[in-house]
Every structure is written in C-alpha cells, then in structure tokens.
Amino acid sequence: MSAQPIPQQVDNSSAAANEDLVVGSQARINFYGVPITLGSGGSLVPDKNQFKDDVITFFDKKLMRDIAIALDLNHPLLIEGGADLGKTQAVDRVCAYTNREVYFVNCRDIEAEMLIGRLTAVENSKSGFGWKDGIVMQAIRNGGVLVLDEYNRLKGEARAVFHQVYDAVLRGKGQVVLAENNGEVVPLHPNFRIVMTQNPPDGTYTNREVIDPAEISRVVHLRYPAQLPAEVEEARILGSFGIVSQAQDAQAQDSLPYQPKLDKTVLAKIPGMAEVLIKFVEFHRHLRHAIANRELAADSAQPVHLTFQRDVKRLFTFVSSYYNGDLNETLQLAIEYYFVNRFESEIDRQKVREAGRMVQGAATAHGKRRAVVEEQATEGLSHIKRVLGKNYYGPEVCETFFGEKLGKVPGIPGWITPELLKSRCPLAKTGETIGETHSLIFVPAQIGSRNLTVHTFAQMANGRAKEAWGNEVLSNTDFFDQEEFKIKAKEGTWVLVYNGEAADVNEGLYKAVSIRELLLSKGIMMISSRGEYESIPQHEVTHAAGAKTPRGFVEAKIESDGLGCSFMDLDEPGSRMVARVKA
Amino acid sequence: MELFGEIEEEQTTALDVFIEGVSKQHEAALCIAQSTRSMLALSYTLRREGFILCSDWRAAMQELDNGSRVALVAESISREVYDLFSQYNGRSGMVQIFDKESFTFISKQLPVDVSSFVLICTDSAIIDAYAPILLHAGLIFRGESV
How far out from the chain centre does Cα A326 lie? Predict the structure, then answer.
C-alpha cells in the first residue's frame, strides 16, 4: 500500500526572503502543494488516526488542495457536490493535518440562536442569567474552522446570521456585533474560517434550497460532480484492498509557491501586469454575458452569479499570495480555482478554461519574470546565513566537500525565520539563541548522479574522509534497512538540528528535552519531509547526539515512523550524531 | 403453519447475521422496524445479544464513548439523533453536536473500532425525518424480531 496522505514540507523558493513581507510569523507547511499556515491546535482538532486507512486519489488531493487554498487565503468556501464524494472527510483531513480546530454543524433544523447564542441561565453570574455562545460565536472567538454541513438546508432566520459574518471576513472588519448581547463587539480570531458543504439543489436530494445571488457571491463556490468519476471509484476499492492504482498515485497539481505576500507596489512592477488585468476584465465580461444568455450553466439548479468587485479582490489575494514569477501561469491557476470550479458540467468547464486563455500577456508568455521573487529570496537567505554563522550548512558546503553538484535545491522552509533563530533556546541554560544551539543543514537528495541513501552517503563520506584524513567515517548503515529507505526524492530538504550533547541512539538514551515544545510554543511545528515521500506533521526532533560543534553533513530518510537523520562531524572523523524526527 | 415457521426461522437468522455483522463493522447500523411494537421486540432481541438500550442520544453517546455496544431506540429522528448517526459513520466517530437543552457544544472522538452502534427506528420515522439516513447507514436490517 502506498504512503498515506500526509502533507509535504513547504517548498519555498523565497521563504523568509524579506521578513517584512512574510505574512504572519506562524509556520507554514506545504499541504498538497498549498503553502498553508498552521492553526493553533486544541481539543477539537480531528484525530489523524481516523484517516489512516483512507485511500487518497487525485480527486481527493484536488478537493483537499482547494480547501487548503481557501483556508490559506481566508475565503469563505462553499463546496457543492453529490453525496459520498468525501467533502466532509476532506475538510476534517485538512484541519487535522494543519492543526486547526473544527466546529461542525449540520444545518438541518438548526435555529439561529443555536448558531449565535442566547441569554440563558449561567452559573457564573450574580443574576444567574447571562450570555452563552452558540457554535458560530465559539468558532469566531476560538479561531476554529466552522464547518456548515448541508448548508442549503439552512432556513431563513438562521441563514441571515451569516451575512454579517461573511462581511466581517470579506471586508476585513475583523469583528462582528452581537446585537442579541447588548451590542457586544466580538473580534474575529485570525484563524477563524468558514467552510460550507452541500448537495446540489437539483431535486435529487430533498429540502435543498437554492441560495440567492447576494449570498453566493460572498463565498468562493466550488462545484464537484454529482457522482465520483469511475476511475476514482475503482481506485478507492482497489486501494482499500492494498492495490495502488494510477488514480491513487497521481498528483493533483504542481505546488503553489511559498513566498512572502506581495504588496501592491511590488505587484505593480511586474512586467505585463496592466496588460493582463485589462484582459481579465474582458474575460469577466465574457463570462457574465455567457451566463446571462444561458450559454453557460444553463442546466445548473444553483445559478452561477459573478460579481466583478469581489472577484477582483479574490484575484488580488491569489496573485499576491501565489505569484511564482510567471504571471500567465499564476493567473491561469487563479482562473481555474475561482471560475472553472464554479461550473459543474465538464463542457462548461472547458468553455471557461478556453475563455480564460485570453488572459495572457505577450510579455510574460515569453519568459519567467522571477526577478522580484529571486531578489527577495537572495536577501532572505543572506540574512539567515548571517544569523546562523558557523551553524549554517547549505548546499554549497556539501558541494565543496564532495566536489560534486547536488540535485535540485528548494528554498529554506518558511518557518525558519530570522526571528525564530534569534529567539532564546529553552534548551540552553546560558541564554543562547536557537541560531546558536542549532544547525541548519541541507540534506541533498542527490550528489552528482547518485541518489542519496544511507548506504551511498556512507560510501561517499568514507571515500572522502579517507582521502582527506586517511580515516574512515563511522557509519552504522546496518541501523537502517536499505530497501526501506530508498530515496525517491527529486529535491533535498532542510533540517534544523539541535547541536546537543551525545546520547547513544542504539541504547535508547534519547535526549529527554524536545525542541518541539519550543516550536509549538511559538506556534511552529517541526516538519520534515522530502520529495515524493510524505512528510510528518507534528513530528519532532527528539534526540540529538554526537558532535559538540558539528561541521559536516547530515543524511536523512523517511521511515515509517518519522525522519531519521545522521550527522557526520568533519572535525572529528569517526563521530556521528543521530537526530531522529519521530512520529 | 409450516410455512410460517420457515419464515420465522429465516428472519431470526437474518437478524443474527445482522447483529454479528454490526459487531465486526465500524459503521453505525440501521434496524428498521415495521411498527413501534416490532421496534420494541427488536430492542429486546438486541439487548439479549449484549447491546445497551438507550432511548436518549446523550446516553447513547456516553455509552459509545465508553466503547459499548449501543442500540438507540428512536421513535422519531431528531436533529441530534441524525447528527450522531451520520457523524459516527461520515466522520469516523468524530461527533460534534450542539445540545440545545444545555446549550453546549459537545465534541467527542468516539472509538468506532471498539464500539458498535445500531439505530432502531421505523420506516415512518425515516420518512418524517427528511434526512438521508439511509445514505449514512452501514448495515441495514429491515424486518421483525421473533
């Protein structure tokens, strides 16, 4: 059976490039190609164990990716599709892996006061009477993901509750006013999100209402088919019996880039921007016209409604968050997400895609204009290098040592920021910073033409060490199972390793103190992964052993329970540090 | 008379298979009775087989949380009963229900691997509920108990 659906480490071509432009300071992970900020955890985060037997196909990956984009960009999201597609499970799964709490409510027969709250008998009040929050207010105050299941079964008064909430999210007001509780002003928690799911109101399902244009224009409406595609059904049954099919193995889409959110002044400098924006206006007009003339969505029970102003805001949010240096490519991704996905029939979707191709700029089509992003990446890397000093072991160090080129080098993960490195390390008794007590090491996937495994690394390191010092480097390759750790990754990975004192991993004398607590206290989770291997959220570097001031290379690979790293100290041939990112 | 006896035997066997199946599956099962009277008969049969009978969703949720085998007898399918049933299956035991009486949001990860859950109701209750109960059901038994 293939690896389970666990998000991958962020691929950040310009992560932490310019911390002033980085959105927030919380950690981000790459969730099926979407660089998403992690939530703050809590008792309502779904248990990941419940997904351990799930079969994840390209369809599920796309669904989760679409949800992750909406959560990342803070769009209220409405997912429409037939029963049994896995909509609710997908939301739960995204929340589980991004450490977000879920406030789930089925909208059947729900009343407004259950959503908002009411004045009722309470224990901690002199009068014995006071305000109690409903589900929506609890999610707003605590920063959870409010999941409204069977949304189009919501009735009048209860439905009206959400208009104020949508507006607070969309207009960036950041607060709602509780008229029912003497006009209490409740600020929106920054992690608060809304996801709605529903079956199509086409008569197949009873009591489903058609949502009015004013309401549907406030949300990002993504339509999925009424039935699962045949290849997905096949993949699910085959996968359930341990047989991996093409549909299960396939990737949904390429990664969106992680980058600092770009502001207007940066976006305005992107060559060809004005040209493609004018073309976007034409595209939008064309779609509105086609919908009005029933050339699009003619058979759709839930009418498609486009509002220019809201779509412009969405487009700006998408481009400023995910611009990858190629404006055409970024805009096509945005059009697919916001416009193609609003239509259910494949014919309509193709028509919208076709129309979307008009949003292309001649200038941007001829070359990748990555200057803005690359400039920031270089600045950010230099900054991190300066903070780390001798504790930085980037790809250039590795290349110098082996005298060979490495494979593809991704950017430094977004959660490794200069602020993190400058903050005090709780493991250090003398007040050192994390940048002083840890090493940032690049673990290559390939050295020259060879894939990096424990075995190849040991061979190469031994050869190099013999050449340099006449000594062999100790490498306990029997500690690892060769077959199990075949490296398939195309890219290397960055690992932040504690430079702590030795403990013998084989004797189980693991270092008791974990940096996980430190990272979690900062809202950051230590996540490591590489390439096609799935990564491990909430895993930790629990053990560090070996060198005093490491100056060497780390080797890492995925095991069933985590990422194992071994580190060779070049100053002390024969020494070995073992760090283990454990499940 | 002989024919009647055969039918009785067949129904008992089907119920036995159903009960055995419920214990092996991790999904909430549905037991649809023809009438309120046969609903009670089915309840007693399930109790005999080791199920804890509950008529209240809160009690059922508590027992499920303890890992018990639970039969919830529902004359009508309330919003909370539907929530419990559909989330037990659809969300793999992650059940979140807003209790209107106590005005509290209850969230539990029920141990679907060890507990068993059967909802006993009538056909008319399913029709009146206007909810896709059957879509969420794992095993379904329809018939009489002897």
Answer: 21
